[in-house]
Amino acid sequence: MPAGPLWVNMNDQPRRAASTLRRDVVPTMPGVYAWYRDDEAIYIGRAGGAEGLRGRVWKEHLATGTDLSRSSFRRNVCEHLGIAATSRTRLRPTVMTIGEVARVNEWIQRCEVAWIECHTDDNASGLEVQMKREWRPPLTKR
Length: 142
Hints:
Elements: H1 5-11, E1 16-17, E2 31-37, E3 40-47, H2 52-61, H3 72-80, H4 86-89, H5 98-109, E4 112-117, H6 121-134
Antiparallel strand pairs: 1-4, 2-3, 2-4
């Protein structure tokens, strides 16, 4: 597990199980989020815009439809599971079978997510860059 001060802060944030997370709990502020599996950080990302963390974490990463193109986390999980390369899942709309997507969704449902709210999109972007410099989780590609 990463030991830099920014990751220590993230790891100290409350984690919420994907399987029980409610939409209204996820803030609409910009921020940085990390997905965890078996108590290990596996992915980091940032959220901005009008919907902030709720739009990214809830609407895109926890989406259950067959289009994986809008969520790099879901695409990377798909590739991690050996289902399809991100070059295939990046296409819009993604051509995935219901069974393939169900495997991705089930895997994500056994994850947890934590976040740090930021005042602005720029603050979130800067924090994400700094955290990636400290340590890059295995499912984070860029």
